[in-house]
Amino acid sequence: MKIAKTESKSVCLQCKLSGRKPGAAILYRDEHLTVSPYAKKLSPGFLVITPRRHVEDIDLLDAGEREKLFSAACAFSSLLKEKLGAERVYWTVFCESSRHVHLWILPRLPGMKNWGMRPGKTDHCHAHILLHNLFEGKCGGAKKDIDAAIAIIRKFAPRYMQKLRKRD
Question: Which domains are present in the chain?
Fold first, then answer.
């Protein structure tokens, strides 16, 4: 069996993205993680949470990194529900094409009602269908809606992360 060669930190896309200077592509960053909109801007609120340390799989995160990643996902899920009206927020981790842990945060917004759901399917199926339809261009949002969502998330991200720290 041939083992696939992994990316080095010097060429890792996620390392490059999470190490950028704060700006339009960074919604939140601290010493542990970076939060940014999904690069292709397919839908309002579609976010990527990336640990700043190069880690190739989720089981290789240390306990503190796992806690920070999960806490950030919770905080941003709350933000998306409260400020953008997301009905559900799905999380998924692939780490396949980019061998650096990154968590996709995928909100199902009220305008996404007719995206191929079938009664009786599990949330996993719902998230898969939503993701497929976003990449196929069957749902999502206009650029102005995506930009407006990014502005809201940028404004409230520090407050939601601060609320989370106060609970600890």
Answer: 13-167 (3.30.428.10)
